[in-house]
Amino acid sequence: MAIHIVDARGQLCPRPLILTKKTLNDQTVINEFVLLIDNETAKENVERFLQDNRIRFQTTKKEDHFQIQISKTGAAVTADVETYCATEPEKKETGNNLICFKNDKMGFGSDDLGAILLKAFVNTIKEVKPLPRTIVFYNSGVTLTTTTSPLLAPLKELESLGVALLICGTCADFYKIKDQIGVGKISNMYSILSSLTNAASIIYP
Length: 205
What we know:
Elements: E1 4-7, H1 15-24, E2 32-37, H2 40-52, E3 57-61, E4 66-71, E5 97-101, H3 111-125, E6 134-137, H4 152-160, E7 164-168, H5 169-174, E8 185-187, H6 189-198, E9 201-203
Parallel strand pairs: 1-2, 5-6, 5-9, 6-7, 7-8
Antiparallel strand pairs: 2-4, 3-4
């Protein structure tokens, strides 16, 4: 019998916890199931929830997500999931806006000018409040995240402030730079599209 899969990728707490509790109490799901999750904070909250309720599990790190294999106990789980949703640290003063880099230049015309403008743009992001929740890189924009990129330092600073940096894995493969990524997380189209869909506004430099 195929193992039951619960896909919580692209979802924030408490949704992964709600899905976990619902599946634990679902009598049609036998013995065990696998939870797919790509949010670090939500993963930690799920693991804490399982530990506190003495539910056996095993977490495996994949390229762009985690797999948590969960064994069912048979007993109903009644714990309140809301109490397990840790808040984000205060330094992460992020809004629900998203910046999307689809090129390694800004605007059209001179490539040299475009590179200068983009560098100024990235260095200014940290001065604007609230910070964007997510920055997405695709097509040639992924080259901005390599270890040799002149924008590596300001992008690392944004990541340290709580901004999620999602890099298109297909694009990184296309440009043959996957082993040169120096900041952010290699992601997939599902996560990127979920971020775009849930953003309050999207900025394309």
